[in-house]
Amino acid sequence: xxxxNLPRYDELPLxxxxxxxxxxxxxxxxxxxxxxxxLTDERAAAAAQLVRTGRxxxxxxxxxxxxxxxxxxxxHDHVVFALNRNEMDDRLDGFHPQRSTQWDGLNHVRCxxxxxxxxxxxxxxxxxxxLGVHNLVAHGIAGRGVxxxxxxxxxxxxxxxxxxxHPITVEQLQAVIDEQGVQLQPGDxxxxxxxxxxxxxxxxxxxxxxxxxDPHHAGLRAYExxxxxxxxxxxxALCVDNPAVEVVPGNPEDGSLHRRVLAAQGLTLGEMFDFDxxxxxxxxxxxxxxxxxxxxxxxxxGLGSPGNAMAxx
Length: 313
What we know:
Shape: globular
Number of helices: 9
CATH topology: Glucose Oxidase, domain 1
Order of helices and strands: HEEEEHEHEHEHHEHEHEHEEE
Strand order of the largest sheet: 1-13-11-5-7-9-10-4-12
CATH architecture: 3-Layer(bba) Sandwich
Largest sheet: 9 strands, mixed
Structural class: alpha/beta
Strand content: 15-25%
CATH class: Alpha Beta
CATH superfamily: Putative cyclase
Number of strands: 13
Low-confidence stretches: none
Helix content: 10-25%
Radius of gyration: 19 Å
Number of domains: 1
């Protein structure tokens, strides 16, 4: 289905007993990619024309950050050992692919009794349900990245801190997009900088330990207006520098943004991306778009993957 034929948000069917609209039939009931379908060859080729300086900026945090890990995940052990007298090797024990900068697979969150993307009912703990991150690898993640520097604008306006549970509304998001003079296009890889990574880096180790026990941060408000905005702009993926995309803790009356957009709309989400250096470079150059490329871990039926992402200016 071409972009011009995508239905409007309010034309999508409702999941029974909820205010959540789903796009399970938009790309076909057997679809395993969701929004990544919009990352076409033509868009990747066009995005390559954005490269001017060739400056390459990693968008990943180190694999051991945050430390301690958040949301009950564990720290991995990096073990170095000798294969023989002359060859060294290493391994990761207890490795959580979603500990640090990460992609969420479409099998990561279900929409209550309605299931995962496409209405799939099988939990991955009972066996594969076709939605693993290996699908992202087979298709590839490359296209026009667009940085929306929310922190740069909200901090300047005052009364904003990335580690406070500030719910970012559609109006605030759109205001920053307009301020930057950005025109979002279908298939964009939208990168939202809330300032989380910068604020987290300022914490000492005791502060990080306390934070891991009670994570909280600014993020997108999880209400229906946000789901409508994200569907209508049709990003190929949405990457945020905070640990959950949405505000934590959220408002139960708003619901879960992961349910609204990952499970119901098939929007691929990235979390804990590092946009600090990128924001400095983009602001200095006076442009906010770039070539975004990522190669997720080729983990068959995986529920998540390290980001392995780069911006090329």
